Amino acid sequence: MLLVNFSEFLKKCSERDKIMSAKEKGKCEDMAKADKARYEREMKIYILPKGETKEKFKDHNVPKRPPSAFFLCLSITQKINAEHPGLSTGDVSKKLGEMCNNTAVVDKQPYEKKAAKMKEKYEKDIAAYRAKGKPDAAKKR
Questions:
Q1: Most buried residue, 10, 50, 54, 119, by CB count within 10 Å?
Q2: Is residue 86 situated within a structural domain?
């Protein structure tokens, strides 16, 4: 098996491209255009293997889901980072999780109320969005 160093290969290709005549470059461009046309023809009749799906259209106008009370509770990350500047991201996450899980129910209520209010707003927004109907899938971005 032949192993090729990719950076050396690119350097050689770049050097070759610099010394190539316009006629040679034209041939390469023509071959690329022909190959692109062949690819597009083949993709029109391509059938996906069973179980796979084509990439779905993503509508960027869909309302975002609101965070849960737990994630709202995690908003004190800056406070933890200030108190313990040497902690890694994973350690900060563990500490935040412990704090939120060990917090009394009374202390969690403001976060739960805020999450409920945000969820209510989201449900109204998503209902209004769905009432408009599905967006035209042909309009990609």
A1: 119
A2: yes
- Report the CATH number that the domain containing residue 117 is assigned in CATH: 1.10.30
Query: Which tens digits make up the pLDDT trace of 78-118?
Result: 787 888 888 888 888 888 888 878 888 888 888 899 999 99
Cα 115 from Cα 68, distance rounded (Å):
6
Total structural domains within the chain: 1
Handedness of CA 106, 110, 115, 120 (dihedral sign): positive
In a domain, 110, yes or no: yes
Average pLDDT of the chain, as a whole number: 85
Query: For residue 130, is it left (φ>0), alpha (ψ between -120 and 50) or beta?
Result: alpha
pLDDT in tens, 23-40: 999 999 999 999 999 999
Q: Which domain holds residue 102?
A: 69-131
Cα(30)–Cα(36) distance, rounded to whole angstroms?
A: 10
CA end-to-end distance (rounded Å), the chain? 44
Q: What is the spatial distance between Cα 14 and Cα 19, in angstroms, rounded to a whole number?
A: 9
For residue 31, give both structure tokens: 């071959």
Does residue 123 fall inside a structural domain? yes
Per-residue pLDDT for 121 more than 50? yes
| Within-domain flag for 75 | yes
